[in-house]
Write a sequence for this structure.
């Protein structure tokens, strides 16, 4: 099915300048996905899709990723309720990255409990020989309590 | 040098909830980077950094990526003049993705000539058995002429 859904990559001209959807999946069969909040523009998360999850995302209108830790399709929000409704999907010049603009039901996208996964800032201008970098938290309060939502589900963060 | 710059990944708690910068580089030594326009919030591009380019980005305050096609550090804008000045750097929950908010000197980030690399929209709701997907161009005019800027430099887009 997925072979008919996407076009074959034939030329640089086709990939960059045509109306063909000819995405490039990496050696693991994945394409990176950047997900932003449709209204605020904030980057909520970065994930991956395989061919099947990409097709499901387009046809369903909700974000379906591929979970590299669980090695399975991951319909975002199915456990937590925080479904990402797709407002717009864009693809980049060489078609090896996808941008999803979404509206998040419930307002949270991060399994740690914050609105965005990007809740810490790296200070700029540190010298290479300076002392330790101290991250600054940009979100003060969690939107939800992960223990209540996920219970004993395994944490997706890996060492 | 890079060993002292970043913290070792010790625990889920440290990675998710502490002020330690303990990024995860993949098996190729890379971490994905999402780059947005500081003012408009638009996603301009998605790239990769290795340890050295990550350190250079933080210390220099300009985006330095790792080019997977050229297998070398890539100080964005050195050829084209479209330097990305870093306004803010954020890292995600499990510290395996970086978000750069930048101001682009000259206003273009895409080697094809557009402002953003994401200049085509994928139409939503296509049925899996339907006819071909037709991408829609969201940018009408190029910001620059790639042939004038890059000359005969090899195109980074690969089949």
């Amino acid at each position: 099915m997925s072979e008919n859904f996407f076009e074959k990559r034939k030329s640089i001209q086709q990939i960059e300048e045509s109306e063909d959807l000819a995405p490039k999946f990496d050696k693991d069969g994945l394409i990176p996905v950047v997900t932003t909040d449709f209204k605020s523009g904030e980057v909520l998360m970065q994930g991956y899709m395989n061919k099947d999850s990409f097709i499901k995302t387009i046809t369903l209108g909700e974000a379906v990723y591929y979970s590299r830790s669980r090695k399975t399709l991951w319909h975002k929000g199915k456990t937590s309720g925080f479904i990402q409704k797709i407002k717009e999907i864009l693809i980049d010049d060489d078609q090896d990255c996808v941008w999803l603009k979404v509206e998040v039901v419930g307002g949270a996208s991060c399994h740690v409990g914050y609105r965005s996964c990007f809740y810490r800032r790296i200070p700029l201008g540190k010298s290479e020989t300076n002392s330790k970098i101290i991250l600054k938290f940009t979100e003060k309060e969690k939107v939800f309590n992960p223990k209540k939502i996920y219970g004993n589900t395994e944490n997706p963060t890996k060492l």
Remarks:
- Helices of chain A lie at 2-5, 12-17, 51-60, 146-150.
- Chain A touches chain B through 67 residues (CB under 8 Å).
- The radius of gyration of chain A is 18 Å.
